[in-house]
Write a structure and sequence with these properties.
It contains three helices and seven strands. It is α+β, with helices and mostly antiparallel strands and 136 residues long. Strands 1, 2, 3, 4, 5, 6 and 7 form a seven-stranded antiparallel sheet that branches. It is elongated and about 45 Å long.
Length: 136
């Protein structure tokens, strides 16, 4: 299993009139966590795209438990619990500085061949980078 913790602070511009982190900003927070999890594998989105692969989101779900507020330090924990073949399901937990669970979510991506704009299986080089995290 891949597990990556990323810390960030809620910025003022990300809050609504109630002082809560705007509900829509969590998609961006999840992306920050996902990018950092991929860096653990040894590559970035830029590297993936340079190899001719695009990775669009095909599913996004979130369950809100508690709000985050301006200037809260959040920990976004990103999980990849299985070695993907066709879909890449990232799971998330967001906690505040007190360790309280604020939300959980899941974002599923697929791989698209840039030159053909067709969905393809997760490339071997991507899957092989994950193997050490799964004891293989």
């Amino acid at each position: 299993m891949i597990k990556a913790d990323t810390k960030l602070r809620v910025r003022y511009g990300e809050t609504d009139q109630m002082g809560y982190a705007y509900y829509g900003v969590y998609a961006q927070y999840y992306e920050v966590g996902r990018v950092e999890a991929m860096r653990m594998l040894g590559f970035s989105y830029k590297d993936v795209e340079a190899r001719g692969i695009l990775m669009p989101v095909v599913e996004y779900t979130i369950q809100y438990k508690k709000p985050a507020f301006y200037d809260d330090e959040l920990t976004i924990t990103t999980y990849l619990k299985e070695i993907p073949t066709l879909r890449i399901p990232f799971e998330y937990e967001v906690r505040n500085g007190k360790g309280e669970l604020l939300n959980t979510g899941k974002v599923t991506l697929v791989c698209i061949e840039k030159s053909t704009n067709k969905m393809v299986r997760v490339p071997d080089w991507f899957r092989n980078a994950m193997l050490p995290f799964f004891g293989k």
